[in-house]
Amino acid sequence: MSAVKELDTPAVTIRLDIMEDNIRRVQAHLAKHGIGNRPHIKTHKIPAIGKLQMQAGAMGITCQKIGEVEVFVDAGVADDILLTFNILGQAKTDRLMALCRRAPGLAVVLDNEVVARELSIAGARHGVDVRFLVECDTGFGRTGVQTPAAAFDLARLAARLPRMQFRGLMTFPNREPTTREFFERALALFKGAGMPVPVVSGGGTPALFTAQNIPMLTEHRAGTCVFNDVMVVSSGTATWDNCAMRVRATVVSRPTDGRAILDCGTKVLTSDQYGQKGFGHVLEYPEAVVGNLSEEHGIVDLSACAERPQVGEIVHVVPNHCCVVSNMVDELYGVRGEAVEVVWPVAARGRVR
Ligand SMILES: Cc1ncc(COP(=O)(O)O)c(C=O)c1O
Question: What residues pair up with 245 in beta bridges, in sequence order?
Answer without folding.
Answer: 14
